[in-house]
Task: structure prediction
Amino acid sequence: MSADLAFRIIRAYSTAWMRSRCRVLLHGEEHLPTAPGSRRVYLLLNHSTSYDLVALIHLAANRFSVVMDEGAFHFPVIGRLFHAAGFIPLVKSDSGAAIRRAVDTIHAGMPVVMSLTDGGSAIGVESRPRTGGVRIANLAGADIYPVFTMVEKDRLRHRSFRGRNGETYSYTTFRDTFYIVSFLPPIPASSFAEHETYESYRQVAEGLKELSDREQERFSRMMREDAGELAGLRRRGGSDRRVRW
Result:
């Protein structure tokens, strides 16, 4: 199976899911790149739910790669599609392998999406920002495009399932909500020195986490103040607009 076909299959599933669960409200599209083929990393600043990647793929007008926890690749069917689509498994005991592959992917002209924080934040666990995405962008000479997501708090649903190993796994889903996707001003590759330190990566990551917190406050306020204007909108249908990543 080709990578393009695998991505289209994942996108079809993602679109069906999003259209049945929410209405997507897009903000900040003017911050997206206009030059085709530019090197870029999209950093998802937060995990509003366990389905944030589903939302981003639903919006995609073109294929991108994703650096994601290796556990997702062990699920039947979907794990094989992730491999076929060129997604990159992150093995925490050897993150260097994922970083090298992500850099090669960007050099080949493919944008990469990665989370700033651990997936645990999708179930309400406070998570310290990681430096991997910042490091990948610097090594690849890529611009960083921050992405923020949010759903209405009272529309969240906390669920769990029991795996084959007998352990219980939690996840967060949603229903009948506005799902906000906000693209923020990019950090250009030129803002990095050729040889950065871990501390400098950490400072950028912490700054992005603070940006995420400010966006959370901004959109929470917007949802309260614009409640009347949004009241007439149906909270389903996903989005008919597509984003050129």
Observations:
- The helical segments are 3-21, 52-59, 78-84, 95-107, 132-140, 198-225, 227-230.
- Residues 3-151+174-230 form a domain with the Glycerol-3-phosphate (1)-acyltransferase fold (CATH 3.40.1130.10).
